[in-house]
Amino acid sequence: MSSRPRDTTDGSPMPAPDRRPLGHARTALRLAPAGAALALLAACTQSGDFGRPRTGVWNGLIDTTGSFSTRDRGRLLLESGLTDDEQALRDRAWRFVEPASSFAAFQDTVFGLASAHTLPPTWRYEEVGAYYEALTAEPSRSPVSRYRKLSDDATADARLIPIFVALAARVIDADAARLRSLPFAKTLDDAAVRDAVQRVAENRCLIAWVRFEAGLRLARYRFALEHLFAAAPASESVAAERSIMMLAARRNLLDPLLPPDAAARCGLGPVPLPPPPPVAQAEPLVVKY
Fold first, then answer.
1. Which of 35, 122, 217, 235 is the most buried (most CB within 10 A)?
2. Other C-beta atoms within 10 Å of 264: how many?
């Protein structure tokens, strides 16, 4: 965790990701059946609050893109061009969830979540205690410096979320307008409809991934704080706890963006949980009369 690149919110530039084309993602996309495209168009006309697709419609959209991918998973929709907000959303999400990987590998993962609803075979979730283990791996580091590192990391993550939420809300609104327009478009063929729906699915699964990772991050920080305090109580724990509380509050900003089961439908999870603490075996109770 300590080597994770940090984004900034003060307007300073961020390094540009490598967006070189993926050779394995350039195969041609076969046309979807006409019936599938018509079903998508029908779904697009069903709106919920604020003109956005209802939860059931969103779920059906994700499921349908999954059926497309079983026939052909070879194309990333980045080839057809992203909006500025979609590109910014991906840049910030990449730095939050997978900064150690190349941007190209990150794009591939997003496509897999939206189309096949699965993570790469090599993907491994960090255990809840992994951050604490990394934090305490250096015996020379004092408890005070560990608390400060925990506080700094939680604060940095918390500061990333509001900007991401604002971007995500704009992308979701644009996607809703995109879906509403499809039933009235007279010149789009099945492939164009499929492209539009796949783009929406990618955007949704990307947002779901960030929300999912923010929850994991929060669990790891809480685990670390509890174990640090049990081992070495210190006044610096107060600042660390406040930083974690700030992250928890800002993590909640992500909840209204998508349905609660969005992460599961995109193939994220289950979340690894720490093993339960051992239960001491009590001596048998002997009652004398």
1. 217
2. 14
